Amino acid sequence: MTDLAPTPGQTIGPFFHHALPYDHDRELVPPCRADAVRLHGYVYDGAGSGIPDALLEIRHADPTGTVPTVEGSLRRQGGAFTGWGRSTTDRTGHYWFSTLEPGPTRDGGVACFAVTVFARGLLNRLFTRAYVPSDEAALAADPLLAGLPADERARLVAVREPDGGLRFDIHLQGERETVFLSFPRHRDRP
Asked: Is residue 156 scored above 90 in pLDDT?
């Protein structure tokens, strides 16, 4: 048997706006729902310009901390909450989701959104987390956040806005680069 060498992932190029989005993809729950929260922000390149053709996916627990296992993410209206959504960026690099605020998945934990970023020029998708702002002691005790310097830790915590929404900006490079995660299956890929 021959060992296969890892190869780069498929870059999505500027064409994905025509193939991957679907109706209500960013609406995990309807925006008018009483308990809906808006998660939004911008995806920036190394020069600080918004990336007009990025794609983000999120996955997260429901407000009780339970990770949904229901199917049907591609059919939103009238379906059960799946905890998964997809949003493209607009010409300024802005993305948004209408969803539920997640709860912690374990006692003493903090809630977060798992975020995946796709963009032209990336050989593989990038993984990060957007933590829901909570008390500083709980955030400092999170295993991932506890291992980061304070400035990097702050870049992974969303900002609560006056209307209750959450803003989470992603910087692909530069001084404010978002902390990205590496998973074993993806570590050895170019």
From this structure: yes
